[in-house]
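User: quick one, fold this
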Amino acid sequence: MFSDPIQNLAELDVQDGMKVADIGAGGGFYSIEAAKKVGARGMVYAIDVQQELLEKLKRSAALIGVHNIEIIWGNAEKIGGTKLRENMIDRAILSNVLFQIEQKDRDNLVLEIKRVVKPNGKLLVVDWQAGGPLSPPTTVSAMAAEALFTKAGWVVDKNFDAGDHHYGIIFKRP
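Assistant:
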């Protein structure tokens, strides 16, 4: 099974009324599913550096009647780059992003996510496993991801199977 946003979001315990940040939202598969889960009282902030992907996400969401996604053109590799306030997010999503981030920028990414997520909030990390036939040439292993986030004070809540080619980790912000 390829990585399934609906099943992976179930691991994150997204609930009605929550505020969710989809960091590196891309085409918005996670954003749209999260928006359905948080309902009309909740909000999803879809953040990406690629404006054209955000425009596509905006059109896709409108076509299916999902109106609780705020599109943010931002760079999560910089502190303040998500344009979100501190401690405002209940749940964050980082799917298929780590492998794209230069090693020198990963610490800032982790700190920016920590800045916006509330204490006791959670983060879903889904990324490519190394060595698979579909894996990109550069990957960040689950062990390296755990080390990166725990170094910044995150706590591993659980690991889970995120599909045949991906790993999944839920982190909690103390």
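User: anything notable?
Assistant: The chain has one domain: 5-172.
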